[in-house]
Design a protein that fits this description.
Blueprint: H1 3-32, H2 38-45, H3 49-55, H4 59-83, H5 88-101, H6 118-140, H7 150-161, H8 168-186, H9 201-209
Helix pairs in contact: 1-2, 1-4, 4-5, 4-6, 5-6, 5-8, 7-8
Length: about 210
């Protein structure tokens, strides 16, 4: 490799690291205060504002990229759970534990803060399909009840994700407690059928679609 080639690859690696810091900082900052300015993201990420604006010229652009990265990670986690050599119920439980612990649930704080591009709906559908496949596999082996959907998982995890204790340790304890309770409820295969129409991907997308 030439010296110029090594320098180029070094700059590319640094740019990727900076981008990862920016996106992580943006999720932290905007989940805490969706009205926060771009400058707050630059400070949290430890990069200059000029560097931030070169990558993401508008706040909407940055918010869309944050959502895309998190949603892609959700889809990857669901597909990894599907591919793992675990019983259906264990795979589903493992994914839900990841979902609650990963920080992905903070995306709900960004709803309404920007106009989502169409590609986000495509990714969301792919995530929902992977989650539905987890549900279907678990139901097929009798590990969970048959009247739940992949969209139910999103709503269950979202409700658990808003729980907050007096400190980080208590917050995690509460979320794990209610996740365990939810998983026990999902496993009640002989229980009375749940009331109401089950949610689906269209229903979850509706609030986002309304922003377009």
């Amino acid at each position: 490799m030439t010296l110029d080639g090594a320098r180029l690859r070094g700059r590319q690696a640094e740019a990727r690291r900076n981008d990862a810091r920016i996106l992580a900082a943006a999720l932290d900052v905007f989940a805490e205060d969706v009205a926060a300015p771009m400058s707050a993201v630059a400070r949290r990420a430890g990069v200059g504002q000029a560097s931030l604006y070169r990558r993401y010229p508008t706040k909407d652009t940055l918010l869309a990229e944050v959502c895309e990265r998190v949603m892609v990670s959700m889809g990857d986690a669901a597909r990894t759970a599907l591919d793992a050599d675990h019983p259906g119920g264990a795979a589903l439980a493992g994914f839900l534990h990841w979902y609650v612990e990963s920080g992905a649930l903070r995306l709900s704080a960004l709803l309404g803060a920007f106009t989502p591009p169409e590609r986000l709906f495509t990714i969301a559908r792919e995530v929902n399909l992977a989650m539905q496949a987890l549900v279907d596999r678990a139901a097929a082996v009798g590990a969970i009840r048959e009247d739940v959907t992949g969209a139910d998982l999103t709503l269950i995890a979202t409700q658990i994700g808003v729980l907050a204790g007096t400190d980080a340790r208590r917050t995690r304890e509460l979320r794990q407690r209610y996740l365990a309770l939810a998983l026990q409820g999902l496993a009640l295969t002989g229980a009375q059928k749940l009331p109401g129409r089950p949610p689906d991907a269209d229903e979850l997308e509706a609030p986002w679609r309304a922003l377009r």
